[in-house]
C-alpha cells in the first residue's frame, strides 16, 4: 500500500499511546497530523469539525483523561471528555468518511470472568470505565466500520509515562535518594503492555482494513509486585532497595479496579494477526531507553 497517500489525524498525540502512533506512522511514511490537547480539545465540537478541511483518511482517537481516580471524583468532566468528545470525533469521521480507530481500556471489565474475550460482557467498576464503555457503544452504533481495540494496561513514552512503570521508576529513584530501603507494592494482576507494540499491531489491523472489536494485550500476566520486582532486577539496584507484596484490597484507590483482569487476544490469534510479545521482553527493551538509563546512572 502507498502509505504516503494515507492522511492520519491523531487526537491526544502527546500522550503515551498517541505519541507511539505518531512515531510509528511517521516512520512508515504516512502523512501524520498529530494534535495534542492544546492543539485540539475534543470537547469543543467546532474545533473538531474544523479539522475536516485537512481531509483525514484515518482518525486515531487517543484523546481522553486516563486518570481513573480523577474521573471517580469528577464524573461530569470525565463523561464530557470521553463521551461528548468521542461524539464530536465520530461526527468528524462521518463528514470526512474517515476510518475511526478507538482505543479501549480493560477497565470496562470487572475481572469476574478470566480470560476476557471479545464475547465477555463489559461491567465497569469505575466512573472512568463507565464513560469508556458508553463511548465504545456509541462508536460501534454510529460507525460500523470503526476499529475498536480493547487494550491491556500499558506503559510507554518514557517521560510521558503516567502509568505504573513510569511513575514507579521515578518513585524508585526518589526512594533510593531518600534512603528508603523497602517499598510495598500491590499484588493486583494485569498485563503490562508496551505502547510500541500496540501502535504497530493496531496499524497492521488498519492496513488490513479490519473493523469491529479486538482484544490486544501482552502475552502473560504479572502482579504489580512482580512487575516492580522485575524493574528492580533490570535496573540492577537490588542491593539498594527491595519490594514487598501488599494485598490489593489493602491498597487504597478512589476508583475500583478488578483484582485480576486478563484479556485473551482471541480474534487476533484466530486471524493470524497477533504480533504482541511477552510482557517481560518488552519491559526489558523499554527500560533500556536512555531516559531510564540516565535516571539510574549513578544508582546501580
Automatic annotation (TrEMBL):
Q: Which Pfam families match?
A: RmlD_sub_bind (PF04321)
Q: What are its GO biological-process terms?
A: dTDP-rhamnose biosynthetic process
Domain named RmlD-like substrate binding: residues: 7-290
Any one GO cellular component localisation term in the record: cytosol
Entry keyword set? NADP, Oxidoreductase
Task: Give the metabolic or biological pathway.
Answer: Carbohydrate biosynthesis; dTDP-L-rhamnose biosynthesis
- Signal sequence extent: none
Under InterPro entries, the record lists: dTDP_dehydrorham_reduct (IPR005913), NAD(P)-bd_dom_sf (IPR036291), RmlD-like-bd (IPR029903)
Query: What is a GO molecular function of this protein?
Result: dTDP-4-dehydrorhamnose reductase activity
What is this enzyme's EC?
Answer: 1.1.1.133
Q: What class of enzyme is it?
A: oxidoreductase
Superkingdom field: Bacteria
What does the UniProt function comment say about this protein?
Answer: Catalyzes the reduction of dTDP-6-deoxy-L-lyxo-4-hexulose to yield dTDP-L-rhamnose.
Into which family does the record put it? Answer: Belongs to the dTDP-4-dehydrorhamnose reductase family.
User: Under what name is this protein listed?
Assistant: dTDP-4-dehydrorhamnose reductase
* UniProt source species: Candidatus Ryanbacteria bacterium RIFCSPHIGHO2_02_FULL_45_13b
Amino acid at each position: 500500500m502507498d502509505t504516503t497517500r494515507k492522511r492520519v489525524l491523531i487526537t491526544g498525540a502527546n500522550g503515551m499511546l498517541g505519541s507511539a502512533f505518531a512515531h510509528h506512522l511517521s516512520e512508515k511514511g504516512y502523512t501524520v497530523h498529530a494534535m495534542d490537547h492544546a492543539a485540539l480539545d475534543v470537547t469543543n465540537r467546532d474545533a473538531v469539525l474544523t479539522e475536516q478541511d485537512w481531509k483525514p483518511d484515518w482518525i486515531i482517537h487517543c484523546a481522553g483523561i486516563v486518570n481513573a481516580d480523577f474521573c471517580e471524583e469528577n464524573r461530569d468532566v470525565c463523561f464530557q471528555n470521553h463521551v461528548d468528545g468521542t461524539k464530536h470525533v465520530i461526527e468528524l469521521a462521518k463528514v470526512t468518511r474517515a476510518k475511526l480507530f478507538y482505543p479501549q481500556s480493560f477497565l470496562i471489565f470487572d475481572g469476574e470472568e478470566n480470560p476476557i474475550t471479545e464475547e465477555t460482557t463489559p461491567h465497569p467498576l469505575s466512573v472512568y470505565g463507565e464513560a469508556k464503555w458508553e463511548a465504545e457503544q456509541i462508536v460501534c452504533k454510529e460507525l460500523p466500520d470503526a476499529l475498536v481495540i480493547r487494550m491491556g494496561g500499558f506503559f510507554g513514552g518514557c517521560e510521558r509515562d503516567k502509568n505504573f512503570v513510569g511513575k514507579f521508576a521515578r518513585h524508585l529513584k526518589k526512594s533510593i535518594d531518600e534512603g528508603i530501603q523497602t517499598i510495598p507494592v500491590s499484588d493486583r494482576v494485569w498485563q503490562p503492555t508496551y505502547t510500541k507494540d500496540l501502535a504497530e499491531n493496531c496499524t497492521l489491523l488498519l492496513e488490513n482494513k479490519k473493523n469491529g472489536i479486538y482484544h490486544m494485550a501482552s502475552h502473560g500476566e504479572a502482579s504489580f509486585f512482580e512487575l516492580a520486582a522485575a524493574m528492580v532486577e533490570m535496573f540492577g539496584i537490588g542491593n539498594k532497595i527491595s519490594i514487598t507484596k501488599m494485598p490489593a484490597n489493602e491498597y487504597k484507590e478512589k476508583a475500583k479496579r478488578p483484582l485480576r483482569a486478563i484479556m485473551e487476544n482471541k480474534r487476533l490469534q484466530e486471524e493470524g494477526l497477533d504480533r504482541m510479545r511477552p510482557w517481560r521482553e518488552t519491559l526489558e527493551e523499554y527500560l533500556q531507553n536512555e531516559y531510564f538509563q540516565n535516571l539510574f546512572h549513578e544508582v546501580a
